[in-house]
């Protein structure tokens, strides 16, 4: 079986104890750290910006998986790359030019990801699959942690899998727990983002293990 990359979302961490909560998932065996950047325009919430990503980069060895839920991502690619992002994923629905934004991300030697919201069909990703390192299938409306998994969104994973280059990483985000993780990996997802399920559990290590 191929490797499944677990990316805990710090949206569900305690922001007053962010370093402690990052170390907790790192010590528990998480592969990447998922950082949800929201601008209050693309989604109805405001979260983390460039300076916080730069500070996080100083306290962890985990690759920083930065999920941009923002308008005009092209304006912020360079600052996030310089802050230490290892993967920058933006949304196809943001209205920016997709091809040039992917090229911009790669020009900083950062991995490029493209995401779709629940109501966006998977085939809009197809023209870009050869240029991307990762696609992110949202299984909740982006904006908040702790929402309920939408099973019909996960069905898009197998459609993408059947049309993607072999090394493309297919990530899923929203309402992931031990049960929904299984559904997603059976469709072909090989990266799982989980916020609430990991951070609200009493035993983070077991929670991470239960996703595999
Ligand atoms: C939602 C974010 C997710 C969120 C996931 O907009 O993109 O990364 O933190 O949280 P859970 O796992 O609690 O649904
Ligand atoms: Zn996310």
Summarize the structure.
The chain has 212 residues and is an alpha/beta fold.
Largest sheet, in brief, is:
8 strands, parallel
Strand order, main sheet: write it out. 1-8-7-6-5-4-3-2
User: Structural class, judged by helices and strands?
Assistant: alpha/beta
The count of domains is 1
Corresponding CATH superfamily: Aldolase class I
Pick out the low-confidence regions.
none
- Radius of gyration from the CA trace? 16 Å
Mean pLDDT: 98
Strand content is 15-25%
The H/E string reads EHEHEHEHEEHHEHEHH
Cofactors and ligands present? D-xylitol-5-phosphate, zinc ion
> What is the CATH T-level topology?
TIM Barrel
Q: How does the overall form come out from the CA principal axes?
A: globular
Q: Care to count the β-strands?
A: 8
Tell me which CATH architecture applies here.
Alpha-Beta Barrel
How helix-rich are the residues, as a percent range? 25-40%
How would you describe the oligomerization state of the chains in this entry? Answer: single chain
List keywords for this structure.
alpha/beta, TIM Barrel, eight-stranded parallel sheet, globular, binds D-xylitol-5-phosphate
Describe this structure in words.
By secondary structure, the chain is an alpha/beta fold. The protein has one domain (5-210): Aldolase class I (TIM Barrel, Alpha-Beta Barrel). The chain has nine helices and eight strands. It has an eight-stranded parallel sheet with strand order 1-8-7-6-5-4-3-2. Strand 2 (33-38), helix 2 (50-59) and strand 3 (64-69) form a beta-alpha-beta unit. Helix 2 (50-59) runs parallel beside helix 3 (77-83). The structure holds D-xylitol-5-phosphate (DX5) and zinc ion.
């Amino acid at each position: 079986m191929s490797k499944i990359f677990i990316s805990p979302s710090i949206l569900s961490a305690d922001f007053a104890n962010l370093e402690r909560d990052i170390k907790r998932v790192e010590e528990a065996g998480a592969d990447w750290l998922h950082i949800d950047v929201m601008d209050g325009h693309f989604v109805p919430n405001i979260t983390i910006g460039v300076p916080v990503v730069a500070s996080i980069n100083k306290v962890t060895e985990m690759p920083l998986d930065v999920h941009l839920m923002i308008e005009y991502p092209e304006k912020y690619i360079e600052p996030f790359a310089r802050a230490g992002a290892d993967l920058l994923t933006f949304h196809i629905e943001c209205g920016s030019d997709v091809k040039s934004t992917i090229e911009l991300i790669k020009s900083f030697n950062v991995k490029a990801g493209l995401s779709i919201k629940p109501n966006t069909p998977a085939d809009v990703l197809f023209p870009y699959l050869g240029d991307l390192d990762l696609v992110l299938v949202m299984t909740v409306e982006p904006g908040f942690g702790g929402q309920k998994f939408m099973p019909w969104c996960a069905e898009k994973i197998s459609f993408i899998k059947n049309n993607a280059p072999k090394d493309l990483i297919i990530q899923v985000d929203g309402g992931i727990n031990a049960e929904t993780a299984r559904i997603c990996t059976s469709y072909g997802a090989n990266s799982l983002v989980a916020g609430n399920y990991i951070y609200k559990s009493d035993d983070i290590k077991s929670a991470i293990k239960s996703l595999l």
